[in-house]
Amino acid sequence: MWPTLILVVLIVAFFVYRQLTQLSPAEAKRLVGEGARLIDVRSPAEFAGGALPGAVNVPVNELEARLDALGPKDQPKVLYCASGMRSAVAKATLKRHGFTQVHNLGAMSRW
Predict the structure, then answer these.
(1) Which stretch of DSSP H or E encloses residue 92?
(2) Of 81, 88, 90, 108, which residue is the catalytic one?
(3) 92 tagged catalytic
(4) What's phi and psi for 102, nearest 5 deg?
(5) Which residue range forms the structural domain that includes residue 39?
(6) Residue 49: strand, helix, or coil
(7) How far apart are CA 4 and CA 82, in angstroms?
(8) pLDDT tens-place values along the chain, 111 residues long
(9) Which residues in 36-75 belong to E strands, given as ranges?
(10) Closest to 40 (Cα-Cα) out of 25, 51, 31
């Protein structure tokens, strides 16, 4: 019983943390409207299947190799993917490389 309870608590904590670290859709739209770079970190195939207007595709697995393509480190960036997992990884990667205004929308469907 205890292992199951611990697993449930961990899963709930993960989802609560993820919600708290994601940008609201309204805030994401405001930032993009003010000039933030909208970055889709999904695969090129996913991007070709549909993306948010104005987004640039930089797959999470190519992110470190394409940092120069993202613009100034102090320019706001809004990241998204299919579920919010890859965009969370991308946010941590960009922060580690000195990008200062990085925001995670999470899932594209939240737009």
Answers:
(1) helix 85-96
(2) 81
(3) no
(4) -115, 130
(5) 2-110
(6) coil
(7) 28
(8) 777 767 655 554 445 454 446 899 999 999 999 999 999 999 999 999 999 999 999 999 999 999 999 999 999 999 999 999 999 999 999 999 999 999 999 999 999
(9) 37-40, 56-57
(10) 51
